């Protein structure tokens, strides 16, 4: 709020919208130290509320053209996305997309509401740029999330109708079902559920109409037995049934949303080979690599909080998740779009993910520490990396390390 007030005052002395927008993002850095003083989960809750009510800067500047790309028939203005886990219940989709992310993934959403694991369950390793969490799919459930996304979808449709009806409008339809930017919906299972497949199918039936893409999350370390679904037979059976549930629904001309699977970074070579085989055989639309790790990569392993149970995210995860990304790009022979996630905190990090085989990149922990000012900085740095090495687009750089 302090930052918004300062930036608002700056606006009085300038009519340059781009300059004002830049000041507005930079001013949010004044608020970050205040969030650091708060309990981690309370700070997270406050950040979601701020985004939900529009108390965050809105990006008015166009993304560098070099960052634009098209995948699954959907146009992304940039490849930088917000990973699942931040906006679990789709409360702040419009505010988050408005900050300039190319895409935002909500969830994980479970069929029935559940509290998740006991608090405290989020722990900061600030000096390492890392977080350990054991939230355990705390979710308001698919009914609540469907109502929110339905309202958002309806608003978007009304805006499109209004724009197309106006002969003087300069608006161009961009983004996906939630407005500017692309919306992903990450599906989870209830902790007490004995039929994981039924949970994911229920999620598809209820939420897929509002999603630009869907994710089957089988890799959270905080739900007992969930990671066993990454086994070859289990994953094949699950994906086939979820694909069938999606395909049996009625779809407009743009067709059903792509279906992705999010995997763990703690898999063996054989596990990765099995997942790649299933993904290729079933023509999976994509893989997200990766979720949090149950290991404690250095230097986080020496931190006192490293002994806390849960999944670790942030900078120490970067090398581990990128190595898995490279391996999976090789195993799938570049035929399946990959989203690189884990430890991204700069444009150079995002560029390394892309060169290692990622078409899109996600972050979360760095955003939690850096706030909104991180978004335009990462995009600018990534554009510089691409142009420095002579790439005219993101897609030209995908998998460049293998050429």
UniProtKB/TrEMBL annotation:
Belongs to the dihydroorotate dehydrogenase family. Type 2 subfamily. Keywords: Flavoprotein, FMN, Membrane, Mitochondrion, Mitochondrion inner membrane, Oxidoreductase, Transit peptide, Transmembrane, Transmembrane helix. Binds 1 FMN per subunit. CDD domains: DHOD_2_like. It is a single-pass membrane protein. One of its GO terms (biological process) is 'de novo' pyrimidine nucleobase biosynthetic process. Gene3D superfamilies: Aldolase class I. This is Dihydroorotate dehydrogenase (quinone), mitochondrial. One of its GO terms (molecular function) is dihydroorotate dehydrogenase (quinone) activity. NCBIfam families: PRK05286.1-2 (NF003645), PRK05286.2-5 (NF003652), pyrD_sub2 (TIGR01036). It catalyses: (S)-dihydroorotate + a quinone = orotate + a quinol.
């Amino acid at each position: 709020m302090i930052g918004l007030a300062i930036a608002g005052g700056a606006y009085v002395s300038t009519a340059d919208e781009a300059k004002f927008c830049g000041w507005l993002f930079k001013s949010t850095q004044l608020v970050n130290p205040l969030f650091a003083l708060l309990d981690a989960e309370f700070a997270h809750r406050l950040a979601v509320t701020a985004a939900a009510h529009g108390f965050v800067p809105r990006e008015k500047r166009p993304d560098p053209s070099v960052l634009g790309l098209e995948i699954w028939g959907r146009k992304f203005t940039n490849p930088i996305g917000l990973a699942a886990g931040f906006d679990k219940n789709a409360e702040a989709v419009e505010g988050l997309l408005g900050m300039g992310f190319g895409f935002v993934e909500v969830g994980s959403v479970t069929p029935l509401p559940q509290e998740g694991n006991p608090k405290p369950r989020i722990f900061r390793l600030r000096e390492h740029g890392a977080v350990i969490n054991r939230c355990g799919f705390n979710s308001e459930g698919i009914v609540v999330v469907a109502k929110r996304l339905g309202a958002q979808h309806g608003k978007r449709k009304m805006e499109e109708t209004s724009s197309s009806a106006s002969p003087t409008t300069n608006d161009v339809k961009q983004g996906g079902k939630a407005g500017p930017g692309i919306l992903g919906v990450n599906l989870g299972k209830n902790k007490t559920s004995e039929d994981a497949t039924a949970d994911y199918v229920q999620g598809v039936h209820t939420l897929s109409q509002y999603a630009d893409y869907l994710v089957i999350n089988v890799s959270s370390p905080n739900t007992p037995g969930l990671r066993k679904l990454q086994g070859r037979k289990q994953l094949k059976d699950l994906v086939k049934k979820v694909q069938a549930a999606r395909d049996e629904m009625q779809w407009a001309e743009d067709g059903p949303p792509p279906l992705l699977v999010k995997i763990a970074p703690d898999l063996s070579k054989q596990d990765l080979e099995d997942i790649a085989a299933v993904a290729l055989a079933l023509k999976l639309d994509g893989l997200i690599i990766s979720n949090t790790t149950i290991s404690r990569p250095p230097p986080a392993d020496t931190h006192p909080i490293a002994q806390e149970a849960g999944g670790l995210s942030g900078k120490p995860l970067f090398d581990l998740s990128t190595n898995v990304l490279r391996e999976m790009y090789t195993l799938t022979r570049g035929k399946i779009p990959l989203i690189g996630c884990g430890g991204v905190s700069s444009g150079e990090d995002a560029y390394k993910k892309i060169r290692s085989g990622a078409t899109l990149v996600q972050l979360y922990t760095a955003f939690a520490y850096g706030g909104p000012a991180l978004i335009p900085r990462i995009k600018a740095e990534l554009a510089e990396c691409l142009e420095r090495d002579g790439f005219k687009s993101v897609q030209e750089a995908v998998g460049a390390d293998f050429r």
